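Team,

Forwarding the record for the chain on the shared tracking sheet. I've put the sequence and predicted structure together so nobody has to dig through attachments.
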Amino acid sequence: MIEWFRFGVSAALILGGVFFIFCGIFGVFRFDFVLNRIHSSAICDTLGLSLVLAGLIVIRGFGWDSLKLFLV
């Protein structure tokens, strides 16, 4: 039961991260000014990568591998 819950939480985090990365890609192509493109890309990539790494930490379990992923 706990494994399914952990899988669901990690899948939600990873999918949320992928969603924000795609929003950043969309913002790069949608905005007109260069500074708006850079801001959109930076914010969305940082949040997306953080969510994907959090999802990988949750699915792997808490141990040395999670510490290595956290340090990335």
